[in-house]
Design a protein that fits this description.
Strand content: 35-45%
CATH architecture: Roll
Structural class: alpha+beta
Number of strands: 10
CATH topology: 2,3-Dihydroxybiphenyl 1,2-Dioxygenase, domain 1
Helix content: 10-25%
Shape: globular
Distance between the termini: 27 Å
Number of helices: 2
Length: 127
């Protein structure tokens, strides 16, 4: 039924302007719809979209909200984000090797960070 349908991610935030700065300037996503009056922003990310909307429940999800697949450029992306002030999450109890800010398991490299509301964002390479 849904196998041939496109999907996209949606993230709840508390402050639309702060979210716009983070997703547009820090992460480098392209804003394609600015519905500030409706409390919704839509960003282009690869071949999909990321919808950001205002909600009283922003940041309450304790699991990954959005995942991006890296294409051999994870280290460069991590370095660029770090230069913009992004702090990365470390999960030492996952059984992965932590190399700086990058978790490793064989060829797989994984990185987690949070947006200003605490939504967990995940970068992954080699899986």
């Amino acid at each position: 039924m849904l196998k041939d349908r496109s999907s996209s991610a949606i993230v709840a935030v508390s402050d639309l302007n702060r979210a716009r700065v983070f997703y547009e300037d820090t992460l480098g996503l392209t804003l394609i719809e600015s519905g500030a009056e409706t409390g919704v922003l839509v960003f282009r990310t690869g071949q999909t979209q990321l919808t950001v909307y205002v909600s009283d429940f922003a940041g309450t999800n304790r699991a990954n909200a959005v995942t991006w697949e890296m294409k051999g450029d994870l280290i460069e992306v991590v370095d660029d984000l770090r230069s913009k002030g992004v702090v990365f999450e470390h999960y030492p109890d996952m059984g992965l090797t932590l190399n700086g800010d990058i978790h490793e398991a064989g060829p797989a490299k994984l990185v987690w960070l949070k947006d200003p509301d605490g939504n967990i964002l995940h970068l992954i390479e080699g899986m």
